[in-house]
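User: For a reading group we're discussing how well predicted structures match intuition. Take VOC family protein. Before you show the prediction, I'll give you the sequence so everyone sees exactly what went in.
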Amino acid sequence: MSNTSGAAANEARVKCAAFWGHDGKALAEFYAAALGWKVTETYGDAAAMISDGTTRYVFYTAKGFEAPRWPQDELVFHLDLSFDDVAAAEDRLISLGATKPEHQPGGTHWTVLLDPSGQPFCISAHRG
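Assistant: Thanks. Here is the predicted 3D structure of VOC family protein, as C-alpha cells, for the group to look at:
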C-alpha cells in the first residue's frame, strides 16, 4: 500500500548502533571520552551505552573477540570522527588508548587509528 501524502506512514529511526570488542565497558569509556559524551547505562560487566542526548552507541563484550586484521580484512563497519584540530585530537585519542597503524591510506584527507579493541576508525577535519 502506498502513502500518497508524501510522508512515511511508519518511518524507521536508528535507535542506536552496537559494537563488540574484548571489553565492552572499556570500549564505551574510550568512545565516551573521545566524543565528549557520557556513559549513560551499564549492563552488568558485559556492556555499556554512551550518548550525547540524541545519538546512542552500545558496546558489548564478546567472548573470543578478534579485531579485524586491517588492512588485509575488509571492514564491515567503522566510525569516521571529525575535529576542528585533527593533530590535537590524534594526540588526545592516543593518550586515551588508541594506536596509529603504519598503513595510512587517507593521505592528508584522514588518519586511521585503532581503538583499544584494535578496530579501525578514522579522524579528519570538519568539512563545511
